[in-house]
């Protein structure tokens, strides 16, 4: 990308030189290139489009952020067995939820991507308010084995 911006800047200088004979006006020619470079650095802002890869027994990423509003969650099941992704609104750390019969309580669920076969992809869109959420695979034993993560909505 660096060479692209250098080329744009160079082209602007050449064009400015052709437009009028005042070739000494270098500061005006370099401004557009600097503006373009600043715009590309804002891409790291929280998104409303999240993708999670499920495997035995983890989600990737295990920590992520989203922008409040209608957030599309996609789970790619890259594992060898069925997995799901349940989103819970809780301030309890992701690895400290109480477990009963291999599962966590879903009383704080705000939505889920239900059981999805190995190799398949599924999505859901949830209207998320700012706060802390935990996502788990609640197939018995999977949460305890490591299928959990933390989602911060801003
Ligand atoms: Cu699972």
Report what the structure shows.
The longest helix is centred in the first third of the chain and has 18 residues, at 2-19. It is built from three helices and eleven strands, in the order ααββββββββββαβ. It has two domains: 2-40, no CATH class; 49-153, Cupredoxins -  blue copper proteins (Immunoglobulin-like, Sandwich), CATH 2.60.40.420. A five-stranded mixed sheet has the order 3-11-10-5-8. By secondary structure, it is of the alpha+beta class. The protein is globular. The structure holds copper (II) ion (CU). Copper (II) ion (CU) binds at residues 83, 137, 139, 142, 147.
SSE topology:
Elements: H1 2-19, H2 26-40, E1 49-55, E2 58-60, E3 63-66, E4 69-77, E5 83-89, E6 99-100, E7 103-104, E8 109-116, E9 121-128, E10 131-136, H3 142-145, E11 148-153
Parallel strand pairs: 1-4, 3-11
Antiparallel strand pairs: 1-2, 4-9, 5-8, 5-10, 6-7, 10-11
Helix pairs in contact: 1-2
Bound molecules: copper (II) ion.
